[in-house]
Amino acid sequence: MPPPRRLAPLEVTKDGKDILSLLRIGSKSKGGHLGLPTPKAPGRSPSVKTWGSDTTASGSSDGRATTPRPMPVPEHEEMVQVKVQKATSVLEFTGMLMAAPYMIKGDDVVAFYKANLQEGLTSQEADRRRGLCGKNTLKGRRSLHPIFLFIHHLFNFMTLILFIAFALALAVSEYLMASVLGVVILVNAVIGFTQAYSSEKTIKALRRLSSPNARVLRDGHLQHLNADLLVPGDVIYLDTGDQIPADCRLVTCVAFASDEGLLTGESHVVNKNEHILSHCHRGLEPTLMERKNMAFFGCVVARGRATGVVVATGMHTELGKVAHSIGERPAGRTQLQKQLEKLALGLFLFALVLGVVVWAANGFEADYETILYATALAVAMIPESLVSVVTLTMAIGVKRLAAANTFVRRLTALEALGTVTDICSDKTGTLTLSKMVAADIWLPRDAKVFVTGHGLEPVGAMFVSGREGNMMALEKLSSVSFMPALSALIKVSSLCNSSTLVECDGEWYGVGDATEVALTVLAKKARLGTS
């Protein structure tokens, strides 16, 4: 069947800022995604609809819209002409595409983003698009400058009371008391600032370590670039074990599957393909798992390889939308902070009342001794060491949690954690490790084989049960060669496998599908694994 013929553009304005884009929507979609009419019969031209146009399609003299001349349309698809406004921002690559990338053909996505599957983008074009779309990074809460961070811990409601007492002590020439209060205020601020600044440095280091690299086609050459430099329209290559650096529309796939547990919470991998989605379930937008022709930022390639065109970067990705929704939540105060503020306010008011009582008892005469006595009484009501004790206690708790590989960003969050009674958590990756190991082997007409070992470490032993069904009579296998069925099974498990094992700092990690990783570990335990 010959390729469908594209319609000629209706109009282009003189300044060249308006452009016409052609999108092809399958006839079975019923125009649901764009809200466009479907032709009633094959061979008839659908009505042409334009967006953002202030002129008529036919250019009639009276200004009334007229029906364009019918044009032949192939039976298998509907040709729709859409007028869009050329943007000078990120909308040029995210908003002008009237249909979602997973709802149109891969070739149309490549053409829209002006990508080149053989040459890729040029460096100049990539820089221009990066200027419009920004870097491919997730924006979190902006960290405070160290000076402002110190001021934040120096001035709060509890220390405000200490500052008032400090000023009163200076006013009555109680320099020793003022010095003690000043040291308490400074020590409390230094402890809080040190912990917060250390946490900010740790977060920045983790972000640098977690920034993945990407294999990108640029200037006709395959380059390994930092994922921050990706832009919409880049052609990237994905292989087993790679972290997907941006949301991309897949154009070629070879046994490709990705682990999308980061976004969906599902432990099983999702098989992918490059085909267009044929329909939407009950007319609703497809879920992330239903978008089989998309690969999402932050997920990991479980197996296979693929080529994709980047369609969204940074905060415009699906992971970026999640980060944006989390960042919108304000950092509330913990219950301990609220109680300490109430205590400080109550003590301050009580100290004022006592001061008035002392002043009234002296006949409302403001002599030096009366002011000194009232000030001393007010300062005595304030627990100067309370703030320091609370801060030191939390700092010790943070150090103990750090020894257990738990990172605490804010001291006040530690108190909130201590009040938790129930935790509703995702199972995969939290309660379980999302890892599999081969523990038992059943062979036809042979005994059952038990496999020992710990985790993914390729060290263990195999025991075979008694051939007469006596499960207690175990015999350690020194070699699997004398059992042809077992030897063949392990060889097949090793050769028909795309996963690998990686050792890092004494820890073993599997790259690929969890089931294939378990078979790779089994083969290495039997000393039949591939190198």
From TrEMBL:
InterPro entries: ATPase_P-typ_cation-transptr_N, ATPase_P-typ_cyto_dom_N, ATPase_P-typ_P_site, ATPase_P-typ_TM_dom_sf, ATPase_P-typ_transduc_dom_A_sf, ATPase_P-type_domA, HAD_sf, P_typ_ATPase
Localization terms from the record: Membrane
Main location: membrane
This protein's UniProt keywords: ATP-binding, Membrane, Nucleotide-binding, Transmembrane, Transmembrane helix
Pfam families referenced in this protein's UniProt entry, alphabetically: Cation_ATPase_N, E1-E2_ATPase
Stated name of the protein: Na P-type atpase
Composition bias type Low complexity, residue spans: 52-63
Gene3D superfamilies: Calcium-transporting ATPase, cytoplasmic domain N, Calcium-transporting ATPase, cytoplasmic transduction domain A, Calcium-transporting ATPase, transmembrane domain, HAD superfamily/HAD-like
Region of interest (Disordered), residue spans: 28-75
Residues spanning the membrane: 147-169, 175-198, 343-364, 370-392
Record bears the keyword Transmembrane helix: yes
Listed GO MF terms: ATP binding; ATP hydrolysis activity
Occurrences of domain Cation-transporting P-type ATPase N-terminal (ranges): 100-174
GO CC entries: membrane
Native organism: Nannochloropsis gaditana
